[in-house]
Amino acid sequence: MEYEFHFEVVFRNSGMLLEGAWLTIQLSFAATVLGLLVGILGALCKTSGIKPLDWIASAYVEIIRNTPFLVQIFFIFFGLPSLGIRMSPLQAALVALTANLGAYATEIIRAGIEAIHRGQIEAGLSLGLSRLQVFRYVVLFPALKTVYPALSSQFILLMLGTSVVSQISAEELTHIANFLHSRTFRNFEIYFVVLLMYLAMSTMFRALFHVTYLYAFGRKR
Amino acid sequence: MSLVQIEKVYKKFGDLQVLEDISLNVEEGQQIAIIGRSGSGKSTLLRCINGLEPINQGNIHVDGDLVNGQKTNLKLLRQKVGIVFQSYNLFPHLTVERNITLAPTVVKKFALADARALAHEVLRQVGLEDKIDSYPDQLSGGQQQRVAIARSLAMQPKVMLFDEITSALDPELIGEVLKVLEYLAQQGMTMILVTHEMGFAQRVADRVVFMHEGRIWESGPPEQLFASPETPELDSFIRAIL
Amino acid sequence: MLLRDFGHGDILLLIYATRWTIALSLIAFAGGGLFGFAFTILRILPIRLLNYLSSAYIQIIQGTPLLLQLFVVFFGLAILGWDVSAWTAAAVALIAYTSAFLAEIWRGCIQAIPKPQWEASSSLGLGIFQLLWYVIMPQAIKISIPPTVGFLVQVIKGTALTSVIGFVELTRTAQLINNVTLEPFAVYSVIAVIYFSLCFPLTSLSRRLERRLNVSSAN
Ligand SMILES: Nc1ncnc2c1ncn2[C@@H]1O[C@H](COP(=O)(O)OP(=O)(O)O)[C@@H](O)[C@H]1O
Ligand SMILES: [Mg+2]
Average per-residue pLDDT in chain B? Predict the structure, then answer.
């Protein structure tokens, strides 16, 4: 059996695909920023030493990490309306992605905080720095340096994960692919090109994060 | 009033009595050596003096200010009390110069140029002017410890506390750090130092304090204490060390 | 289509469907482990071209969404003239996915073995395979267990995506039940609980093993 490839169908619709990719990127960044805030809050709860806060944060992290993202998004988009919480596909996608990144970021940031040696903090205090100044000048930079690599791989995973929100018709890249598939039936060509688009995006962002890391945390002399 | 005045201090960690009825006065320009077994409360005493640990009973005054008061400004107090730890605790992400200028600029609001001049001055005192642009991990342990001393000196403290600052060092690096301490003693710096270097304590200290089980067990001039210990505990401690 | 209430029968159906999720996870894990091992070896053998090919494969899999990998395999195999079921496509895609991640995890474990161990044994005249087999593997396997168990959780969660290409496992069954009961809140809550009870024990096992490893290496 000979199959004739028709990639021109894909390129004719490249405008739509690029728009989908752009929405994927926007969604990823928005969820990352919001998810980081959630992660910082979660890490503070887990390191606060206040038992109930620790439990709530731990339960949240474990529920998210031990259930499939697809199920979470179905639950949020289809399930929550029975509680009167109704969201557009894009809103539901953003909530689900944020909740996800927040859970992983909680663990990463907590590890970053705990990696700071107590002696460093005491040295700062002994020099007369206030707690806030110790955080700002002594703790923050090394903590960011420790968590940055893990957080940037988490961003890539999140971006790849956004493809799943196509299943509730949020119009990101994979949803566009599904749409073109139903209209043109050139399914292999479409999905193959879209796969390459994701590969290009993740490669690009990985390189970007690497350069940023070197610039921000490498030594200048 | 003495520069450091410790009166009947008690301190517990949970149920563990770590300091018991500690009283000690240190005059300006004096050097005091604290010796004693591991776990006898030496580090805890130093940490109480600059307010890193709260105490349960008694009073500690430094330069007339109460350390353990409700309204004590610990930030101001700590500018008068320098402390150097066994693990040097330099800030790994900052150069030697920035390690030193950080507190003067941030806490005392020195202009950067003034703080830099100060950094040069204190580094000269510890013999490390040429390392000003290095990062901590590019220095040997002895050099890092000297930078840590310089960092404390830059705050121009009234009294310096040293907690076994040579214990983590390779033997061949101990000498360079002790030399800095001797130099500071000659300059008239008030110092309280916990040490296991008995020869050094004998040379430099005006008074030696032997701690045992959270108490000041014995104290006096070094010659007297080392030559004729009054208690069997000090006697066996000295034998074990020598 | 007739609507009915979500009841005991549906819960039984869901539990029944769970065996497909488990079966697919096991196949993905076994196949992925086999190929993953091969890719690990290809990456550390001193043959540039093989290192390069193997790491390119890993980067492609790790740089693209599993959902798209499923689509490409599903439609790609059909183009090649194989009449594949959703079940086959799901298994192939998940094996490919699992092998890449396991290869990356295991390479990390092998490289975590300190340099002197490698040097000491090659100075004893061991060849590369002897070195790997007798010296490196036994140590690497020990540290690889916690992250490997942890990754099994990712595989189980990954199987949910095969519902999209029509493989009737747990999530797909839930969708079908939801279509006739219209009780999404209950249906998706139940399967979330089922997934959680599959994944959470593995997550905490992985964490416990990790802790034990850290304790024993600290001594
Ligand atoms: N933060 C702490 N919490 C509980 N116990 C402590 C703490 N710090 C020190 N201790 C205990 O207090 C005692 C005295 O410790 P320390 O002052 O460090 O002794 P030294 O410096 O003489 O070796 C020891 O028994 C030690 O275990
Ligand atoms: Mg001590």
Answer: 93
Is the pTM of the predicted complex or chain greater than 0.90?
A: no
Weakly modelled stretches of chain A, pLDDT under 70 = 1-2, 219-221
Per CATH, the homologous superfamily of domain B4-89+159-241 is P-loop containing nucleotide triphosphate hydrolases (3.40.50.300)
Is the C-beta atom of B42 inside 6 A of ligand 1? yes
Q: Tell me the CATH number at C104.
A: 1.10.3720.10
Alpha helices in A48-186 (DSSP H): 51-65, 69-74, 89-115, 118-126, 131-134, 140-161, 173-184
Give the Å distances, CA to CA, from B23 to B7, B138, C105: 4, 42, 59
Distance A143 CA to ligand 2 centre (A): 27
Question: For ligand 1, is residue B11 a contact (CB within 6 Å)?
Answer: no
- For residue B39 and ligand 1, the question of a CB distance below 6 A is answered with yes
pLDDT tens digits, residue range B11-49? Answer: 999 999 999 999 999 999 999 999 999 999 999 999 999
CB contacts of A126 in chain B (<8 Å) are: 50, 52, 78, 81-83, 152
Q: Is residue C1 part of a domain?
A: no
Alpha-carbon gap, residue A159 to A31, rounded angstroms: 9
Residue A221 is predicted with a pLDDT of 46
Quote the ligand 1 centre to B33 CA distance (angstroms): 19
